[in-house]
Amino acid sequence: MKLDILAFGAHPDDVELGCGATVAKEISLGKKVGIVDLTRGELGTRGSAEIRDMEAAKAAEILGVAVRENLRFRDGFFVNDETHQLEIIKMIRKYRPEIVLCNAIDDRHIDHGKGSKLVSDACFLSGLRRIETKIDGGIVQEAWRPKLVYHYIQWKNIEPDFVVDVTGFMDKKIDAVMAYSSQFYDPNSNEPVSPIATKNFTESIEYRAKDLGRLIFSDYAEGFTVERYVAVNSLGNLI
């Protein structure tokens, strides 16, 4: 299956929180989008890996993604090395996306920055034909390099290089995020409180998108950073 967009997240819920509305919008426009989670989020303060597996499947269904896979790297301890790069290269070559979305370049959680660099490096290496990867019983994969790599924004208020107008898709994003009911604010929960399990964080999902939207004279927006200049065919392509 060839995808138009492949979104990577260090943990299940990263993609939903960082660019869930953008994913939903692109799918509505007929794009095929997939998600690859690097870990199962097994070190999370609340819930469990098994619960996160079920929540991730539910969130994927809400967004309407074509496929979702989990590489089962070690939460908190995966590194940017050849072994991990090769596993991501296999995903890139399997789905051959034009665009890759990945974690914030720097963030509160150490896995986010690590995951960002790991995926970015793998996107480059995936285009080198002398790196051989095999899947599905020894089938050799063809080299493939995504045309574009964009990084979504997470906990930290990183200045975006561009924003996507996601007006009309915030409800779907919030529904997908709230599919991870074990992770977020619940006044009736007896589990420990984590930074994302607060009412303030839940409310921030909407008010951050509103603030970015305000800056482009729209209702909601999601921001991204780039690795190279964004090119347009003409000034008329810019809103």
TrEMBL record:
GO molecular function: deacetylase activity; hydrolase activity, acting on carbon-nitrogen (but not peptide) bonds, in linear amides
Gene3D superfamilies the record matches: LmbE-like
GO biological process annotation, one example: bacillithiol biosynthetic process
Record-linked SUPFAM superfamilies: LmbE-like (SSF102588)
Pfam family, one: PIG-L
NCBIfam families, A to Z: thiol_BshB1 (TIGR04001)
Protein name: Bacillithiol biosynthesis deacetylase BshB1
Organism name: Avrilella dinanensis
Gene name of the record: bshB1
